[in-house]
Amino acid sequence: MKKLTVILLVLAVSLGSTNVFSQGAPKPIFGAKAGANFANIGGETDNKLKTAFHGGVYSEVFFDYFLMMQMEILLSYEGHAPFDDQPFSSSLNLTYINVPIMARYNLGYNFNVHAGFQVGFLLSAKSKYNDEALGEIDVKDEFNSVSFGIPVGAGYEFWDRKLNATIRYVIPVNNISIFSGAGQKRTTSVFQVSIGFMLYRPV
């Protein structure tokens, strides 16, 4: 319930900001996006990069023609791949609802850079072993329910902002594990490549 409340609050702020920030500037944009995650779990362990999916919705609210606020709500699959092909080696599959809120600066009409803050709400966490007999184990109780990150990236927009491409790295901030002893700290870092489509822009 708390997760839903925060997400609805972000949507309300986004919609409420439309009239405040867009006076005399381009109209706000609302759209959908999807792409690939190249994720890993860092800290005090060695793991392999995992390729996964992210997707969701976004809004772009303009202060003026150059400075704007960009907000997103994304379903994001993270974690790491098995370290090797041995039976007891496992992948970690984390599922988050991520809410990045970023300042964006347009370098000309099409190219932009952005940075901000992201909060993630953990939906599930499972370890899956290479050996099918060992199966998949729910490990959600070993992880904090909230993660924090600093997204930094760049994007390019096509066809009057109807289509956009984005690359981004989310710098981890907190320990996502409930354990903090020697060798037990974990961080989730993600490099993202996305394609976005404009769904609505007020006339």
How would you explain this protein's 3D organization?
- The chain is mainly beta.
- It has one domain (2-200): Porin.
- Helix content is 10%, strand content 59%.
- It has one helix spanning 2-21; strands spanning 29-43, 50-62, 67-80, 90-107, 111-129, 136-138, 146-158, 163-172, 186-200.
- It has an eight-stranded antiparallel β-barrel with strand order 1-2-3-4-5-7-8-9.
- A hairpin with a 3-residue loop joins strand 4 and strand 5.
- The longest helix has 20 residues, at 2-21.
- Residues 14-22 have low confidence and may be disordered.
Question: What is the structure about, briefly put?
Answer:
This protein is mostly beta strands and 203 residues long.
* Helical percentage: under 10%
Computed CA radius of gyration, to the nearest angstrom: 18 Å
Write down the overall geometry. elongated
Q: Averaging pLDDT over every residue, what do you get?
A: 87
Classify the fold: give the CATH topology. Porin
Could you tell me the number of beta strands?
9
Structural class: mainly beta
Uncertain regions spanning at least 5 consecutive residues = 14-22
- Give the spatial strand order of the biggest sheet: 1-2-3-4-5-7-8-9
H/E series, N to C?
HEEEEEEEEE
Quaternary state of the chains: single chain
Number of helices: 1
Strand content: over 45%
Reading off the top of the CATH hierarchy, the class is best stated as Mainly Beta
CATH architecture, please?
Beta Barrel
Distance between the termini: 35 Å
Tally of distinct domains? 1
Largest sheet: 8 strands, antiparallel, barrel
